[in-house]
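Tokens help. Consider this.
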Amino acid sequence: MKLIFPLLLLLSTLNAGFFNEEADSEKQELLENKRLCELFTKKAEAYKKSMRDDLLAKTTLASYEHRASLFCGKAKKSEPESTDEVNTSK
């Protein structure tokens, strides 16, 4: 009987952070998408200024622009959900 209370206390403390992991991973994913969005946007802009006029250069630029739009789109999709969560928790 004496072991039930410490066991319940131990289990509750172990599970206390379990539900926060999902929110933390979503926040990390949003930050990573924002970082990659900025990175590929800057790469595309810099590459446009100094690129050659051949097929490989145009393909590289298209790749940078595609990845920039991909990560920027993911960042914008995730952003309103995270702000709604913040507003509802206040």
